[in-house]
Amino acid sequence: MTRRHVPAIAAALLLSLPIVVGGAYSALAAVGVVGVGAAGFTTQHLSAVLTSANTWRGIVWTLGTAGVATIAASGAAFFVALRVRQSRTGRVLAVLPMAVPNVAAALAALLMLGQSGWLSRLTHKLGLTPTPADFPALVYDPAGVSLVMAFAWKEFPYLALTALAVLLTDTRELEEVARTLGATRRQAFWRVTWPRLWRGTSPAVLAAFAFLVGQYEMPALLAPSDPTALSLLTYERSIDPDLARRGEAYVLALLALAFCGLLVAAHAAWRDRAGAGVDW
Amino acid sequence: MTSHTGFFQAAALAVGLGLLVGGCGASPSGAPPSAQALAGGPWDAVLTQARGTTVTWRMWRGDSAINAYVDTWVAPRVREQYGIEVQAVDGQGPELVNTFVTERDAQPGRAGTTSLVWINGETFAQLQQERLLGGPWANRLPNATFVDQASPIVNRDFERDPAGYESPWGMVQFALIYDPERTPTPPTSIAALTDWIRAHPGRFTHDQQFTGMTFLKSVMYGLAGGVQAFQGGFDEDRYRHGRDKLFAWLALIRPSLWREGRTYPPDVAAMHRLFANREIDFTMSNNQNEVVTKVRQGILPPRARALLLDEGTIANAHYLGIPVNAPNPAGAMVLANFLLSPEAQLEKQRGDVWGDGTVLDVARLPAPWPSQFTAVVQDSAAVPREALAAHARPEVDPRYHARLLEDWRRLTRSGIP
């Protein structure tokens, strides 16, 4: 560590302090040393969580819904950003949903997509469903359709904003240079626009994904009871009537933390490798 | 790699600092007199000490009717009469235990943040188990004289003797909620409910939390020999017997439940929403009068009524406790005493306020209180007091609830045996 790094490291440390302290406390609580119901060192919480099929089904379901939502939101954000980058109104409209709180988005999804919601009444009015209850179950459904839609809708503006920031910084000029040098539209897109777009937005895409994995409010309102989303499972354990089981919440929280850590590390490694040859 | 090494050194330092801070907290500091010590002295001294203080009261803040009673009726009166500021903040039962254990881990022996908590049942048992409640103090309150100590619902909290560590505040009873227009002849026994559910597929369910489990527990009482079969502490064999009967019943009705019992509403708010939107025909509540207040708030349809099953429904009391690390036990005691006063209990019982049953023995109150309690306008949607009393079944050891929740999640909800 050289001297000029000191202020930066100090600032980073200050920001990561809650994670470091929280992680250390959770690690101790996960093995029954501190926390509610702690009765001395035990591996019981670890084995209870890691051997439970519910944990893994919950994790797979959580990663799946967050993954599908992130892909959908990224695709839509890139598409829209590429289309509206020259239009001020378009840019404003694209980022508008950012102003809606997560809980409000989930409640809106509930009101629109529930079996007694607007859509079901509309399809009933149009004669598409015999009764509103025949509308397919999109809320509390095992596939998590409404949750994925709410997730994607909430992440879209954030990703669109990031994509627009990339596209509005010199990209147009570089595309024009490529075209002047004889590249086709397609070539200019795949050789200039797309690499810049992906490289510039990938941290945001990862952040959106990690955020959705840890999201609590939206699954609490829209997710099915089975499989149980990781955040719901963690909260359930943290308030379990059996105090001896509350330590399991810390194991689940550490799993989520470890997962996000792995994601950040993998991304950093990928960037280091990808960035070795090219530097804009 | 230099910066990485630096990071880990810094991280280790941070953890070390954290432990150091935690360790320093162990030194004794100017703690206020405990609730137990105050209970041993004259009441006037408690009043004097409480004047000019603030009481932070951690409670469930999820119902606007309850919040309005606390913030706009109780708080101004306590400020005027006793010079105490009431600060009601959010913090529900199971989370309280986590909060206080964290406070204790971080600053052992020091005053915490909370002076009064709203608790009962498993939370009371857990707080006692972790030695997080101060006391005894509750029987010292001047208004404790009028508490209905003969009532088995009030004098035992899930079979546990409050023993002066919590002061009773109110009493509620579980009820199903239905709409007489949609269901003109509602089922009034478990057998009739079973038939009704099977004849109306997709129109009945329960939530995954406390209310839903209370419903399942009362069905378990009904199917396995009544509440008597579960009284006298937790017994594994009796639990398994009751659970097996209940789960056989659930297996029978499950295909006819809402969404074929593959998913369950997350909480009662979701139940009320599904009921109001006509997706299901019954919702439920731990408070028989919630139907009255929720109709007034427009959350439930105007015709909604409470329904009790012949086998009886679970009634329980809720209480106020003072944490062992309370910064202001004197203020908390004065507030708890005020909440137990006939005027505060009467106001709370009004259907248009909260509809929470009193824990006082109304007949023993001095005039004119008894007639005023009787005169509290009985809403047509409310269940008459006699019917409530006849159907009330006490709670049993909280471990029955914990085990039932655990087994329901494992065997029924996840469907993985």
Structural class of chain A: mainly alpha
Average per-residue pLDDT of chain B, rounded, comes to 89
Largest interface: A-B, 45 and 46 residues
Span from first to last CA of chain B? Answer: 50 Å
Strand content of chain B: 5-15%
Low-confidence stretches of chain B: 1-29
What general form of chain A does the structure show? Answer: flat
Number of DSSP-assigned strands of chain B: 9
Assembly level: heterodimer
Q: State which percent range the strand residues of chain A make up.
A: under 5%
Question: How many strands of chain A?
Answer: 0
Q: How does the helix and strand content of chain B classify structurally?
A: alpha/beta
Average pLDDT metric of chain A: 90
Radius of gyration from the alpha-carbon trace of chain B, in angstroms: 23 Å
Report the biggest beta sheet of chain A as strand number plus sense, adding barrel if it closes: none
Keywords, separated by commas or semicolons:
heterodimer, A: mainly alpha, B: 417 residues, alpha/beta, 6-stranded mixed beta sheet, 3-stranded antiparallel beta sheet, 17 helices, 11% strand, globular
Structure description:
The complex is a heterodimer of chains A (280) and B (417). Chain A is 72% helix and 0% strand. Chain A is built from eleven helices and no strands. In chain A, helix 3 (53-84) crosses helix 7 (145-180), helix 5 packs across helix 7 (145-180) and helix 10 (230-238) packs antiparallel against helix 11 (247-275). The longest helix of chain A has 36 residues, at 145-180. Chain A starts with 5 loop residues before the first helix and ends in a 5-residue tail after the last helix. Helices cover 46% and strands 11% of the residues of chain B. In chain B, strands 1, 2, 3, 4, 8 and 9 form a six-stranded mixed β-sheet that branches. Chain B is globular and about 65 Å long. Mean pLDDT of chain B is 89; it is low at 1-29. The interface between A and B is large, with 45 and 46 residues.
